[in-house]
Amino acid sequence: MGKAQKYVLLGDATYPLQDWILKPYQEDENLTQRQLQFNYRLKRAHSVIENAFLRLKARWQILLKCDDCSLELLPTLILACCILHNVCEAHDNPFNEEWLEGTEPTELPKPCQPAPAAMEDGRAEQVRELMCQYFESCGEG
């Protein structure tokens, strides 16, 4: 869209809108078709991420019991699992769907109530609007 953007994290409605947290528009009858399309695409992207983490935990089940390692080690452990996953894929060692049987999707803790409006960043609406325009320009999908 002609404007450089930095990376953003995907959040849900309970998180405050920030220029680094992309969240859906509040669901109500006033949403435009464009905003509904944005929410749909954000939800799809979020489900892809959840599925990727589920598969990562299924392949590398040490990630299911990370409570027995130090917090300082955790980012390195996750990165190592991601790298090993890519090595396996590159060498035609495909993911075995049976591994998913012992892995349940876990609900990560998140706020129960939406963040107060005072926590939202006014500039972040510009980022969300830009992404909304981008999704609209990409067509259906």
Helix and strand composition category: mainly alpha
The Rg value, from CA coordinates, equals 18 Å
Share of helical residues: 40-55%
> What strand order characterises the main sheet?
1-2
First-last Cα distance: 18 Å
Q: Number of helical segments?
A: 3
Beta-strand portion reads under 5%
Provide the low-confidence segments as ranges.
none
Mean of the pLDDT scores?
83
Could you give a short description of this structure?
The chain has 141 residues and is mostly helical.
Give descriptors for this structure.
single chain, 141 residues, mainly alpha, two-stranded parallel sheet, 3 helices, 3% strand, globular, nucleus, HARBI1_dom, hydrolase, HARBI1-like
Structure, described:
The protein is mainly α and 141 residues long. The protein has a domain at 31-103. The protein has helices at 33-59, 74-90, 124-137, and strands spanning 9-10, 21-22. Strands 1-2 form a two-stranded parallel ribbon. Helix 1 (33-59) crosses helix 3. The longest helix has 27 residues, at 33-59.
